[in-house]
Design brief:
CATH superfamily of the domain at 211-343: YVTN repeat-like/Quinoprotein amine dehydrogenase
CATH topology of the domain at 211-343: Methylamine Dehydrogenase, Chain H
Number of strands: 35
CATH class of the domain at 211-343: Mainly Beta
Largest sheet: 4 strands, antiparallel
Strand content: 35-45%
Radius of gyration: 24 Å
Helix content: under 10%
CATH architecture of the domain at 211-343: 7 Propeller
Number of helices: 0
Length: 511
């Protein structure tokens, strides 16, 4: 599942158009086995980006949706937490452009394993930058190769449609945020494009516009047509929109809507539903989990909600008016539920009655840690717990007691890279918890990091004579000067003194 962090309204007419007649034409084939892969040799071989948006575990592989693309991790049985093989989906495999915005794995009626992914990218119109859907892809060999559709849209021709119908004819602000597979239909939830399905029994399937109600499609006027999340529970299909949760018992033919009711303690706490999760335990218990965000009504608030009667009634199990929680994703391990939230990674072993909050991920070998509290995604499988956020992927093989932290970065000093560099650069102290100064040591010894202003006057020394071993390292700085005050926008210089020599670089600070 993919989580929406912010959506703004843009009229869906007049921009560059991709018509629904554009389709993927490669024939469907049966699932093939996984080819053996060597272990990753560098950080760039593992993750396309440090922003881990979504994850899906489907034995034996973990699929990792990042801001830079899709990665597949096959853990090594009996190996250390991070041991295994990685494979990044590339354009040469048929994978589409942009960061991954939606992800799903499932099995169709023929027993084929289907892996769907959607991407998003930036587009510029009139000097303004907007999000744009990069399309939807399907892999029948667990990510080895892909067939790709452009972002599904409608024809401009409205002849024969009822009054009030308003087609979405552009990929701009039409990003697919979630995907679900039920039987031989794949469903996508898109902000500007609404809810659509692909009937995979057809020789040349196309994406069909299917609102979760009986009203003419119009995302501008109807909040329930703005789709953001999908969950499948046996034969039931759940769709989260900006107007609550919709249930279909017949794979999209008819619908029921459940939404926030002012004054009710058994309805959703908010109507904006960016995340849904279906938990089915080995004992047969079925629970629907929803990330309820505040939408329009003054009585709405952010919380985690659960339903054990398929959406008819809800319990608000975490978060309140005074202590709201923004949840981005759910993961399950039989009776255990994990929630990736702006409070961090949460865990409940009693179906939401009580919750524990994991401390920030810290690598048990290198000591490197995650500084951002926000977590975007979680997954569990192969005896491992996975936690993803804006600072990389945490992997634990002991239930979160210890972690290995995987990050993506160009190897300093290789392939034209500087021997030391800062990222993100430009750096915003309001947007990022820290800026990292990446470098590699060929000899162990003390390391000192200093920051200078544009006049080359020493501003602060975040690290002084810290002992570091051979290998890759990252020193961090929170963008604050002496006394803890936030520094002004401008150009700064950093100096790393290492056993291998002295390295200088430039850092831009922009808020």
């Amino acid at each position: 599942m993919i989580r929406l962090f912010q959506a703004s309204l843009l009229l869906l007419f007049g921009a560059a158009t991709i018509f629904a007649s554009d389709r993927a034409t490669r024939p469907f084939t049966h699932t093939t086995g996984l080819a053996p892969l060597p272990a990753a040799t560098s950080a760039q071989d593992r993750l396309p980006s440090n922003s881990i948006i979504d994850m899906e575990f489907f034995s034996p592989a973990l699929f990792i949706a990042t801001g830079g693309g899709l990665s597949r991790f096959i853990p090594l049985p009996g190996g250390a937490a991070d041991e295994g093989s990685f494979r990044i989906a590339r354009g040469s495999d048929g994978f589409g452009p942009g960061g991954v915005s939606g992800l799903a794995v499932g099995i169709n009626s023929a027993g084929d394993t289907l892996l769907f992914a959607a991407t998003a990218r930036d587009t510029t119109i009139g000097g303004e930058t907007y999000g744009s859907g990069g399309g939807v892809g399907l892999s029948l060999d667990l990510g080895e190769s892909w067939l790709w559709w452009p972002q599904p849209v409608d024809s401009r021709d409205t002849t024969g449609f009822p009054r009030g119908y308003s087609p979405t004819v552009t990929s701009v602000q039409n990003i697919t945020y979630d995907i679900g597979i039920l039987g031989d239909k794949a469903w996508i939830a898109s902000w500007g494009g609404g809810l659509r399905y692909l009937d995979m029994t057809l020789p040349e399937p196309v994406w069909v516009n299917q609102p979760p109600d009986t009203l003419p499609f119009n995302v501008l006027d109807r909040l329930n047509h703005r789709a953001f999340s999908i969950a499948v529970m046996d034969t039931l299909l759940f769709v989260g929109t900006a107007k609550g949760v919709n249930l279909s018992r017949d794979n999209g033919l008819t619908w029921q809507n459940y939404s926030h009711t002012p004054g009710s303690e058994t309805s959703l706490s908010g109507n904006f539903i960016p995340a849904l999760g279906a938990q089915i335990t080995t004992s047969g218990r079925q629970i629907l989990w929803a990330a309820a965000w505040s939408a329009e009504a003054s009585t709405e608030f952010y919380s985690i909600c659960k339903s054990e009667d398929y959406g008819l009634t809800w319990s608000r199990v975490y978060g309140s008016v005074d202590d709201p929680v923004r949840t981005h994703n759910f993961a399950f391990e039989d009776s255990v539920v994990y929630a990736a939230t702006d409070h961090g990674l949460l865990k409940s072993s009693d179906y939401g009655q009580t919750w524990g909050v994991f401390p920030p991920v810290r690598d048990s070998v290198t000591g490197e840690r995650v500084y951002e509290v926000d977590m975007f995604s979680a997954a569990a499988g192969a005896g491992r717990l996975f936690a993803g956020g804006p600072e990389g992927l945490g992997i634990s093989d002991d239930g979160g007691l210890s972690w290995r932290l995987l990050r993506s970065f160009p190897t300093p000093g290789s392939a034209g890279q500087p021997t030391a560099y800062a990222y993100p650069n430009p750096f915003s102290p309001d947007r990022f918890a820290v800026v990292r100064f990446q470098y590699r040591l060929n000899r162990a010894g003390p390391v000192t990091l200093e920051l200078y202003d544009f006049a080359l006057e020493l501003l602060i020394r975040p690290v002084k004579n810290a002992n570091r071993g051979v290998g890759d390292h990252a020193e961090v700085w929170d963008g604050r000067g002496p006394g803890g005050s936030k520094i002004a926008n401008g150009a700064y210089f950093f100096r790393l003194q290492t056993p291998d020599g002295e390295h200088w670089g430039k850092l831009l600070v922009l808020d």
